[in-house]
Amino acid sequence: MATPIIAAIRQRRDLKESLTHTAQELAHLASIYGVVRVSYTYLAVKCRCSRRTVIRHIQRLEDAKILRKAVIWIRGNFCEINTYTFQIPWQHPRATQGSDKTASTLPPQEREKNASRREEGGNPREKHSSVQAELANQQKTLRALTPGSGLWERTAEEIARLEGLLAHGAGHAIG
What we know:
Elements: H1 2-11, H2 17-29, E1 35-38, H3 40-47, H4 51-63, E2 67-74, E3 78-86, H5 99-102, H6 110-120, H7 124-144, H8 150-173
Antiparallel strand pairs: 1-3, 2-3
Helix pairs in contact: 1-2, 2-4, 3-4, 7-8
């Protein structure tokens, strides 16, 4: 999100280089809404200057109407952390695609892949190996279950079904 805010800061020719650098460091830390929560000490380290210089830079950015500062006070005179909000107008990036189009770029689920392979009459050896892998997974699961439980029964039935597929498919796939 920093790029549009930094571009807006660079358009301001009235800011000196060090002040611009401080504003850019703040922009790098900003959320998508232009809000930054940072301490003076951390910002001083990032800007490679003293804490006092950062305080002066923040004051100048407030005076130039680039930032608005909010301070949260706790327990009397102790300042928790400063929150800065960019007031300078910047171009918000527009979404190029909606969420309904995003899903189409994700890889298909494993079941969908297997179904499409079956419809296309994919490689029988590949089908055979995927059934073997599923059988191995089910057998591994069965070892962890309590014998006689409902889940154990369903897993045992699935193992029997997969073994039947292997026995039926072995003659066709390899034979």
